[in-house]
Amino acid sequence: MFVVNEYGTEPETVLESHGIRVLTMDSIAFASLALAGEVIVTGSHGGASAGQYARRAGVAAVVCNDAGVGKDGAGIAGLRAVGADGIAGIAVGHDSARIGDGRDAWLNGVVTFVNDPARAAGVRHGLPLREQARGLIEHLTASPAERRAGAGEGGDELRRIVVVDRPRGGVVLLDSMSQAGDGDRGHVVVAASNGGKESGRIAVLVGCACAVFNDAGVGKDEAGIAGLALMDRAGLPGVAASHLSAAISDGPDLWESGVISHVNEAARAAGFEAGTRVADAVRRFVERREG
Q1: Which of 1, 44, 49, 132 keeps 20 to 30 A from 102, CA to CA?
Q2: Residue 155 has pLDDT above 80, yes or no
């Protein structure tokens, strides 16, 4: 059972025009076919997994945080890819809006990336998102019914890979923390999501032994690592790797190439240090647990 649906803010309608709604949500994982043909403004990064969720929901346009763009442009890769499906993909700057906070993206986000359909709809780089929303809606062509009919396909499935198996708990790699579930209790979860508040809440709900995320460029109000503080209050080690060292939304790359940039107090007490490789630090943590 996935725990992502056990909490989280309900989508909030912030604008309606020409029969199309603009809705905010903190995570794109909350999107569903009920939103086909609508515009969603999310707090999620714009990586590959975000593109998959947008396709499955059949939305007309999706706004995400650019997560500092990061290694290989991974922070906007999903927004770029959904252009092939006619979905307008837009990113707002991680320094202008808090990652993990859809309402802040709507209120304060400044556009840093547009894909081809978004550009054709008149959305421009460097301008506030909210000022461009009505113009975007006016240029959307497919109806909600057409979007719903074409929805449901998300491309490659999100990966889940067990790389260490131990009696007291192993290590599982995830492309998105939204994949985490009850079966991950007691395991180390290396999830290539941003380290924002939603990731931290899932880690606490799951009860994982430790969680590793991408720092998403840290960004406004240090929202890219806000989940580490939530985990600290629950006594759980939380770690983030630099967005320049590992591609967001790529669990194996976080494991193989990630370099730790931030640790919470519980992680520091457990021996994690900034500047060390994720795989090396996690393996040491698992070995110490086995005693």
Answers
A1: 1
A2: no
Total domains in the chain come to: 2
The last residue of one of the domains, among 149, 179, 210, is: 149
CA distances from 267 to 63, 197, 231, 281 (A): 33, 17, 10, 10
Same domain (yes/no): 98, 224: no
Residue 97 · residue 65 · CB < 8 Å: yes
| Token pair of 133 as six digits | 């929303």
Mean pLDDT of the chain: 93
Q: Which residue has the higher pLDDT, 152 or 74?
A: 74
Range of the domain at 58: 4-149
Q: What is the dihedral of CA 98, 154, 249, 34, to 10 degrees?
A: 20
**Global model pTM greater than 0.85:** yes
Kindly state the average pLDDT of the residues 31-59.
Answer: 95
C-alpha 76/C-alpha 70 separation (Å) is 9
Give residue 100's pLDDT: 96
